[in-house]
Fold Nicotianamine synthase.
Amino acid sequence: MACQETQFEKQIIDLYDQISKLKSLKPSKNVDTLFQQLMSTCLPTETNIDVKKMCPKVQAIRTNLIKLRSEAVGYSEQHFSTVLGSLEDNPLHHLDLYPYYTNYLKLTKLEFDLLTKHSSHVPIKIAFVGSGSMPFTSIVLAKFHLPNTTFHNIDIDPQANSLASRLVSRDPDLSNRMIFHTTDILDATEILRGYDVVFLASLVGVDKEAKLKVIEHLENHMAPGALLMLRSARGLRSFLYVDVDPCDLKGFEVLEIYHPSMSDGFVNSVMVARKSSD
Ligand SMILES: C[S@@+](CC[C@H](N)C(=O)[O-])C[C@H]1O[C@@H](n2cnc3c(N)ncnc32)[C@H](O)[C@@H]1O
């Protein structure tokens, strides 16, 4: 049956057509404009559009768009990390040079509030899986919320970790509290048992199957009682990030899910879950 293409689907198909033809996803005026158009198209929360009911053509586009956007975000973070890391001064004094800095401040504040609400103690060791070349969440938590916590940033990409460690190496405090591990999270086992909290980056696992594989792996290796902070998406925003449902978190007790409104200043939903006893 021919797709009853809604206005949204027509916009998505057109944007995907342009984005998939880009020769490079590295930051440029054209790349930035297209991904900003994608963001604003998917931002509305007050719609009754059911993404799951969209036709197979648009569903296929959804997965490919998330993959392309993940690559573009990687390049963008790499660019800004290189700029910050090349400053004479301590890069952590100039984080506001990153265009999405205030968005991260708001997202991380919410995640800290959820963490505090569902934790019986201040976390000593936190892992951030998929920390990237701009480990903003770890930096913001360490600088503004958790002064005595150590952050273990796990990323598969050695270049991302090399750029990220350059951001904190000149900071007298964070250089001691930010640790970097270069590994595929699926190869990390024993180490995962040592964390009070594990954050999973929205762009680790860029399709549902890959995301569930990572979640299952974390469930196999996290300590009972440890918290998983997972970034998800709802509605049209599931064209930007993989949407995870509570039933996907086997072996975890889902404690709370926060879906941001248009006024929150960040896009992804946040899910807090506790690893059940073995
Ligand atoms: C582009 S960054 C974006 C992080 C973003 N700030 C967020 O919150 O999603 C995502 C990072 O996840 C890393 N990554 C992807 N798959 C991974 C895996 N299986 N194990 C470890 N790191 C992974 C990538 O190398 C990349 O640096």
Notes: Residues 56-85 form the longest helix (30 residues). DSSP finds eight helices and seven strands in the chain.
